[in-house]
Amino acid sequence: xxxxxxxxxxxxxxxxxxxxxxxxxxxxxxxxxxxxxxxxxxxxxxxxxxxxxxxxxxxxxxxxxxxxxxxxxxxxxxxxxxxxxxxxxxxxxxxxxxxxxxxxxxxxxxxxxxxxxxxxxxxxx
Length: 125
Prior knowledge:
Elements: E1 8-9, E2 14-19, E3 22-27, H1 29-35, E4 38-42, E5 49-50, E6 55-61, E7 65-69, E8 74-79, H2 82-85, H3 89-92, E9 101-105, H4 117-123
Antiparallel strand pairs: 1-2, 2-3, 3-9, 4-6, 5-8, 6-7, 8-9
């Protein structure tokens, strides 16, 4: 399983990559492999400010639909438009082209409660 060291993780299998006051969010390699073939990503929260652990969208795979939980509070700035026509990018490149949303962080201190790569790797063993 690919667990990049430069990201933070949730117990619900989302990742967050911080770049200044903004961050990118997606689901982990483990999550996409458990879900199987992803056929649709539904995010209708762009422009909203959500609290940590609130649902920001759903991901639909052939065998299940799963809620997506925000790793840290913030305003949803944009969604990855490429996923509209190519949801399989989440399977192919979950940490790169398969990112889901970009947020403006409200409280960077919340990142301290997330898992680092080592702790996340232990969780998914």
